[in-house]
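Changelog-linked ticket: adenosine-5'-diphosphate example.
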Amino acid sequence: MTIASLRETEAGDTVGAQRLTDGIHLVVDALKLNEVEAVYGVVGIPITDLARLAQASGIRYIGFRHESAAGHAAAAAGFLTRKPGICLTVSAPGFLNGLVALANATVNCFPMVQISGSSERHLVDLQRGDYEEMDQLAAARQFAKAAYRVHRAEDIGRGVARAIRTAVSGRPGGVYLDIPAAVLGEVIDAGLGAASLWRVVDPAPRQVPEPAALDRAIELLASAQRPLVVLGKGAAYAQADDQIREFVERTGIPYLPMSMAKGLLPDDHPQSVASTRSLALRRADVVMLVGARLNWLLGHGDAPQWNPDVKFIQVDIASTELDSNQPIAAPLVGDVGSVLAALSERTGPGRITVPAPWRDELAARSADNVAKMSKRLAAAETAHPMKFLGALQAIRDVLRDNPRAYLVNEGANALDLARNTIGMQVPRHRLDSGTWGVMGIGLGFAIAAAVESGDPVVAIEGDSAFGFSGMELETICRYDLPIVTVVLNNSGVYRGDAAASESGDPAPTALQARHDLMIAAFGGRGYRATTPDEVTTALREALALGKPALIDCVIDPADGTESGNIAHLNPKGITVQR
Ligand code: ADP
């Protein structure tokens, strides 16, 4: 029997004396058994029926315009829920488009499974030139935490279980699951099929270090003159908010939140040293990293950004992360929740104290920095044309009244300035370009946040960054999601005031768009704002409506720095005429 004839008879029907099922039904049944509630994808051969059946079976299917955005949505769903986000793609080109997101999920330690249909193995492997021919498994392997292929319908349950387990256990990441068209269409006995499925039990088991390892860390913290805790997005992912707060507040240690850890404790918490980050890193003598890697975002732990004599404690689920950049004096391998609970339990009252001179030093520098920033903000408030900081202050004030709103953020200046201007009050409500500093996550992340939570989302986008996923405005409108996209439009990559070349072509960094008109084409509400007051009015109205909206903020084309805060990563060479 073929898949087409099975569709006509419906799986589960009796053909002769036998009840039957097929690969597509088994995939959907396996996902349901593992409590998958949403699938993000783009349909086409050979997975269109899979999406239809998932939807008919009660799984929410969100259909995108590009697989990369669908994949980013699945990755964000994984980060927010601690369950692997599922992305569904078609063969070869669709698969490759999704692979960017799978790789990004892996780099960011977000659990995700990309399930892709693929072409016929007997044609692909002999390179006979099949429709969308590609050895997808081989391609995926180098970009994912793991990659598996299912060859028989009876192995679909095993493949799904294995993919889910691998995605969430240990250090989370992206897993690729290849299911060729022939397997999706394979018909088998329904009883055998049902018996081949299983539900993954305890997919991310708790993991606690030895008491001696805990005591080593406590000893170091107790001896510190200038201790510091750095909270990373692994801490946010762990959903150990109470344990983190308890440990930080009980010890009184100053803490620095990495961008996606903002809100684990509210950003106006008295122990936060976000406003005196450079001093904290340069002076701290014992630093406890909690779900944060010493990668480029933390200057690899090197002097002069860091105190050359600093001693590190590192809490991480992945033992191989430790010693990757600097010696780790006290390794704590385990999940953040269990480790911090155990540390709190073993730290007697008064055992760890923070010397007053350290607190005073940080407080004095923080007061200086806050005063300097206030001057910049005040100047931007009245500037015309509008500056990034003018628009961002307006957004900040509206968001203060809407703490449940998720904030998605990407761009160069739009990312750096929004991160520093807008405080977060709630854990896991800030999603951004992450470890790669990647552009294109914006609308996919926003869609996942809205779908998974039902809460409003504000996506603050640089005009260049927005372009990578801009067509997903249609997806937002089609599913009527409460997402307000705010484009900080300075008409260019970095800035929009570069002169055209002598040939008459626009400068490489030039852009032009009326983004408010774009969303109108899809049925959403577009606003154009040229002053901070107009931003405030539009954002308040859009959030109150709870409907798809876009605010095109017209920013001074001369505002913005090349590459934002990371200009030093550009090659030096000979200066190019700007
Ligand atoms: P940031 O960019 O915010 O500094 P990173 O992505 O560099 O954060 O670091 C996240 C780290 O958190 C990774 O090394 C990852 O292994 C770790 N991690 C992820 N989940 C957990 C968990 N549940 N418990 C402990 N560590 C975790």
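Closing comment: Example verified and attached. The first helix runs from residue 3 to 9. Residues 65 and 477 are 12 Å apart (CA to CA).
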